[in-house]
Design goal:
- The chain is mostly helical.
- The protein has one domain: ABC transporter involved in vitamin B12 uptake, BtuC (Orthogonal Bundle), CATH 1.10.3470.
- The chain contains 13 helices and two strands.
- It has a two-stranded antiparallel sheet.
- The longest helix is centred in the last third of the chain and has 32 residues.
- The protein is globular.
- The termini are far apart.
- About 4% of the residues have low confidence.
């Protein structure tokens, strides 16, 4: 028995070690276990139609989470992503309702506006050196107020939009939802940029030690400005997809999404303290939370648990980062004579 256990332990050792070192692999393993457990009680959990619906919604959050991850890696945070998504979704719908432009032009206009909103965040934070949590908490409300101003008590109905506008939400390529492909491409491009470009290395350097990065000649404020600009742009992409997915757009659309986006980022392994994590992990985190959401629905559990889960994930991530920093500080003090 002991020999058999030793053999199994030898075989499992590398696998468990890899899981422990990679948040992406860990989340994937947890999702597999979750799928098995939920399927026992709700067999339709793994039904193609259900999985398509889950992954399409998760893809929208994943794109926003990739942008948020860029900001969090620099040891900042953007709380205005949900208002940016809602504003872009409504503005694009309002433009199309007037039949004054084509769909691609309306999308381009929306993405341009989203980039400007991200640049506004970045400019205020870097020029006036105001904490990002304060700035984006303010723009969260400002941008949402702009949505209400533009809406003026109205909503965008499906009948206001061009025929077939929501078709991309159900389209697939070789069985894979189009939205998922967009999310995968976005995540891949961001991952390559982070690991294969000078800007990507600078992003991690600024998040790890801003003063050291400055000494190395890195323009930290410029890096942070670009991170917030890209976060705004990707929130705009998510906002466009949100409008395509739901068709009917309200002034309150995407409200509360920021909690899910930030939770996806931290559960995906991006440290709140900055300097570590991957956009791939953030995207997988969005899928993980989407599966939990769907599991609660199928198991007839209270949806209020989602808010508890999102909040708990963020608190655990913050506590873990604090513990790691304290432990690292204690180790350095022990080494120094």
């Amino acid at each position: 028995m002991s020999v058999s256990w030793a053999v199994h332990r030898t075989r499992l050792g590398p696998i468990l070690g890899a899981l422990g070192r990679s948040r992406e692999l860990t989340l994937t393993g947890v999702m597999v276990v979750l799928a098995v457990l939920v399927t026992v009680r709700a067999p339709n959990f793994l039904a193609p139609d259900n999985l398509n619906q889950v992954t399409v919604l998760a893809a929208i959050i994943a794109i926003a989470a990739v942008g948020e991850a860029l900001v969090v890696i620099t040891r900042e945070v953007d709380l205005s992503v949900e208002s940016t998504m809602g504003l872009i979704a409504f503005v694009v719908g309002a433009v199309l309702r007037e039949h004054s432009t084509s769909v691609p032009e309306a999308w381009a206009m929306g993405l341009g506006l989203a980039l400007v909103l991200g640049m506004v965040n970045g400019a205020i934070i870097t020029i006036f050196r105001v904490p990002s949590i304060v700035v984006t908490l303010g723009t969260l409300n400002v941008y949402r107020g702009l949505v209400f101003f533009v809406a003026n008590g109205t909503q965008i109905s499906l009948s206001d939009l061009p025929a077939g506008y929501t078709n991309p939400a159900t389209q697939t390529i070789f069985g894979v939802p189009l939205f998922v492909i967009v999310a995968v491409l976005t995540t891949t491009l961001a991952a390559v940029a982070l690991h294969s470009t000078r800007f990507g290395r600078q992003l991690y350097a600024v998040g790890s030690d801003r003063e050291a990065a400055t000494v190395m000649g890195i323009h930290s404020r410029w890096v942070i400005f670009v991170a917030f600009s890209l976060c705004g742009l990707l929130a705009g992409v998510a906002g466009v997809l949100w409008g395509v997915e739901f068709g009917t757009i309200y002034a309150t659309s995407a409200s509360g999404v920021v909690l899910q986006v930030v939770a996806a980022v931290v559960v995906g392994g991006v440290a709140i303290s900055g300097g570590s994590g991957t956009v791939v992990g953030a995207a997988i985190g969005a899928l993980f939370l989407g599966l939990i959401n769907n599991a609660l629905l199928l198991l007839n559990l209270p949806q209020e648990l989602l808010q508890v889960i999102y909040g708990a994930v963020i608190l655990i991530a913050v506590a873990t980062d604090a513990f790691v920093r304290l432990r690292a500080r204690g180790t350095r003090q022990a080494v120094v004579p």
